[in-house]
Predict the structure.
Amino acid sequence: MIEVKGLVKTYGAKRAVDGVSFAVKRGDILGFLGPNGAGKSTTMKMITGFLRPDAGSATVDGIDVTANPVAVKRRLGYLPESAPAYPEMTVEEFLSFIAEVRGFRADAAKRAQVDRAIGLTHLAPVRKQTIETLSKGFKQRVGFAQALLHDPPALVLDEPTDGLDPNQKNEVRSLIKNMAVEKAVILSTHILEEVDAICTRVIIISQGRVVVDETPAQLRARQPGARLDEIFRSLTRGDI
Amino acid sequence: MATILDQPPPAGFGNPPPSTPPSFSLMKQIGPVFKREFLGYFRSPVAYVFLIGFLVISVALAFSRYGGFFQAGIASMETYFIFYPWLFLFLVPAVGMRLWSEEKRSGTAELLFTLPVTTLEAVLGKFLAGWAFLSLGVLLSFPMACTIAYLGNPDWGVVVTTYLGAMLMAGGYLGVCSLMSALTKNQVISFVLSLLACAVLLFLGFSSFSDLLESWFSVGVSDALSNFSFITHFDAFTKGIVDPKDVVFFLSLIGFTLFLNVVALER
């Protein structure tokens, strides 16, 4: 579903992403791990067409994002880091705007999509509230609702559980897990337990390169008995 | 360990989305962007502060000794509109500075440009919303037109062309401001750059300024430069003349600045 080949992005003298390649099928939940600044967000921004890669390609459903960005964006749901949204709009207004841009113009269709997204992310109690008055957890859920409003075949989630309390984290994870049956999901995270909880595959990137691409079980088998964060640390030493 | 993970999924999962797949066509995306941006002015105090401020200042200037609305003794709106190029110099950058800077700063630019919207559609949608908002401000000065109609017998043709000119000029100013706003994520920098760029385009039309230009360049060049002024092209409208070359000037200024705007955002 999502295929990435040799992606490269350079900022000045620093190579943020240095030849990253991987593929995600439907039904996969890919956990994207790495220290801060390793190139996780930059890779995601290139897949979603926000940044133009310096080299390499990213395709979604066989469509190249550089060649046809709008077609790729139609098939993707994307939750950017820290879930940006227009603060002066209410949850309902914001999601209606997203629905319109996503092509649901008729009132009935628009309302159906918005209600569905609000139901999935449990936003009903705050639907008439402006986004600037929401707590971090609710804001994150608004970003999530926005990403899955059009029921996309592929989801790219940049730190979806960042800033949530343990209950909310659990809820978001269950949401992702339930959805992933028919979707391809990439999610980046700092939380290693998350990988165990929901991911079917793990990629660790360090200094812009993929250092691990395997299942969580294989990752654990690298150092039997060790905690995941110990394994993570030994693999990403170069970044420190 | 019993977690939420073990619970059945909430209702709605696995069901296909309730509507047919959406259809897309060229430029269809301008609508939602326009609507969100235009209503956005009214979702915050910006719109009310701006509209009231604009109307109070513009009317006060007309009635002041510098405007001389009553002293002129003519049923015309010239004393009202004569200040517009100056008011726009400060007020249009105030509207335009947020167009792109705010999206960049708050991160919503990333949201907007990962939605199925082309850069051109986003630029046009936001620009047209700002232009419509400014035009609304201009049109809300209609009580002035009612006043002159009550006091005398104005030439309605001139009134209409003046309004048309004012709206076109607002578009020209806003194009410049939108471009400057796309260059930075800082609204203050955006405001100052817009002010400077608009000031240059305004002053080019003044004789003292064109004298200075003539001392630097040949007469042909300085004449050509002063043709780029807002004042030169707005004046004709206030006299009831709709010269195609003035209309073309404002529209091509808008087109050119929006083109650069797209380039600036895509770089």
Summary: The mean pLDDT of chain B is 85.
